[in-house]
């Protein structure tokens, strides 16, 4: 919900962070942060002005001059303090996250924890950012590399993980010696801002971390600003493609993690109980609003007989407000998101899929206005249907049956997205064949959501990713640094003068 005046002062206004100061925006347009379970307006978010974006980048540019030379040990100690503060405040922030985003309290705590793991990894920067050295590559000549920070970096984050994904970005960027401008999702920035406050409390200096809010105009201003060196994005395919193309055209280094259609391939020899539990959890957890959610189950051979059991488990999930005990599936983030998901469910019915479990009319006592959709399962789905070709981003699972593992692999590889996939089997040979032949960046073997721990990099591929380097892990250190190679030779009075050398070879 966007309004065009500044008159609504009945709810708190989210501030900007510029040069270490919490700034009241001079914006004339605001967006409401709405509790998706109740429609209560929690706060209003300013759509920052171009002058405010410029001020945030200028603050980061100014801070870079000194921050880049801050000893690496000092940067590490800030991250150590930061992870301590996040741990101490995680339950409080999780409650805010649930109120503004809708996910269950336990899932909100998981959102924070997965981001915290990246902060902990950032504290290892002393070994992650090391260069290389070779002595005597020629007579008296040494060559070494330096991993130096880029400058001002930008992060643009989505609504579905308002804790984890910002924590993927700015801690690694600033611990590498860069400065940062963060643009959180305008739908649920409150928990993100709590994490930013803790970063400042941990000792991040003024200007090293800045925050602006807004929509397309602010994104475009950041992507085209001459002082911005790198842009990291997570979100939809349409916006991610725009960000990548615009920022790249203006000379920025860009990583853009985008949409997905994640398949779980189930072989008939899989452990039935664990596989069904994994499918249901990965499909309907967070109301399906995960870029790594399992949205397609490919049942091979006799595994197709498991559909009734799958539906029975999905039917048993409790739909409710995220803050209510026992809730398994919370509301989707907005009324608009709910309507879009309902439209895709209706399209699936029109196109001939069988609606085996219908979550459209779910009722949640005490929450008549919530954006609820119950677990929904389609069977008899073909790959030309809208519910297969589009990312639904809701609690909807489509089921496709095939006869062989080869057919399943071919089906997954034909899909344009490449974020994540999984195979469920007790056969090592089948698992090895799958991991070798599948053309998807992240593979789970009896794991439904194969998001790697921070020591490894998030490696989505094909239509799910633009840019060569992924977030966190070793790849993100490469993304946030520039390799400089130095070749050096030193002389003293005893060095023999061997004359002028006009060849390319070193001697």
Automatic annotation (TrEMBL):
Alphabetized InterPro entries for the sequence: Ald_DH/histidinol_DH, Ald_DH_C, Ald_DH_CS_CYS, Ald_DH_N, Aldehyde_DH_dom, MeMal-semiAld_DH
Aldehyde dehydrogenase domain sequence ranges: 22-486
Which residues, by range, are in coiled-coil regions? Answer: none
A Gene Ontology BP annotation from the UniProt entry: thymine catabolic process
Domain of life of the source: Bacteria
Gene3D superfamilies assigned: Aldehyde Dehydrogenase, Chain A, domain 1, Aldehyde Dehydrogenase, Chain A, domain 2
Q: Which family does it belong to?
A: Belongs to the aldehyde dehydrogenase family.
What is the protein's name according to its record? methylmalonate-semialdehyde dehydrogenase (CoA acylating)
Species of provenance: Cupriavidus gilardii J11
Provide the taxonomic classification. Bacteria, Pseudomonadati, Pseudomonadota, Betaproteobacteria, Burkholderiales
